[in-house]
Write a structure and sequence with these properties.
The chain is mainly α and 246 residues long. It has one domain (3-242). The chain has helices spanning 3-26, 37-48, 54-62, 64-84, 103-125, 134-145, 147-151, 154-160, 163-186, 211-238; strands at 91-93, 240-242. A two-stranded antiparallel ribbon has the order 1-2. Helix 3 crosses helix 4 (64-84), helix 5 packs antiparallel against helix 6 and helix 6 packs parallel to helix 10 (211-238).
């Protein structure tokens, strides 16, 4: 495909997007007004499905398909990073050099690690009830594990971070989201429809129907993806170096 043809395809795509985006903006409510039809509808739908956190209701119920796209982007980004940063023939793996960490920093990291881990899991588990959810909690969990790199050393981090298992967890989280979506079709509804299980009692942990299930799938995928992503970059910085060709 020539450069000229690619530019024409890009121009047509940009023109089509600009036309549709402009038409959508013309129908938006006035800025600063007291009419918020989309917000009101989102709140009503969240309450009807027993989801206290309206943001999670939008992410995992009303617009769950959009969330699948966001999750897939992260999955593809991690996959691309794994491929690009894999060890090549011109590189070799060396033992990590122990780093000296000040005692106050070491103690702070070791104390904060279990606290951050529990907070991250709490945010994931209560995403349908309070601010947070799978994306936020997954990032906290992945970050918490890497406090061991500061509190101990890189070898200690490697012992609790078998990258292969986290790669599998990343794929399982992505696949679980898809399976839950397909289950909606099998149940006679639509893809990712919140119609698989009862909505439960409002403002309790078992509420929101399939919202907590999708939320936990995303939490697993984001946490594992974060660990794998950081592992590849840290391996390149700490353990991988070019072969001496001399």
């Amino acid at each position: 495909m020539s450069r000229r043809l690619r530019m024409w395809i890009l121009a047509v795509g940009c023109f089509g997007f600009a036309a549709m985006f402009g038409a959508a903006c013309l129908r938006l409510p006035g800025f600063g007004g007291d009419s918020h039809p989309y917000g009101d509808r989102a709140v009503r739908a969240a309450l009807a499905h027993r989801t206290a956190n309206v943001i999670s209701a939008v992410n995992f119920d009303q617009r769950a398909f959009d969330t699948l796209g966001e999750e897939t982007i992260l999955f593809a980004a991690v996959l691309g990073t794994v491929v690009l940063l894999r060890q090549t023939r011109e590189e070799r793996q060396v033992p990590p050099t122990p780093a000296h960490v000040a005692l106050p920093v070491r103690l702070y990291a070791l104390i904060l690690l279990p606290i951050a881990l529990v907070v991250g899991l709490y945010v994931v588990a209560h995403g349908q009830l309070s601010p947070g959810g799978g994306f936020q909690g997954g990032v906290v969990v992945a970050t918490a594990l890497h406090l061991l790199y500061i509190g101990a050393d890189y070898r200690a981090l490697e012992r609790i971070r078998p990258v292969g298992m986290y790669e599998v967890g990343d794929a399982v989280g992505e696949a679980t989201y898809l399976v839950l979506g397909l289950a909606g079709l099998i149940a006679g509804s639509s893809f990712l429809a919140n119609a698989l299980i009862p909505y439960g009692t409002f403002n309790t942990l078992a509420s929101g129907g399939s919202v907590p299930l999708l939320n936990m799938a995303v939490g697993m995928e984001v946490a594992c993806a974060g660990v794998v992503l950081l592992a590849r970059f840290l391996d390149q910085a700490v353990e991988i170096e070019e072969e001496d060709t001399k």
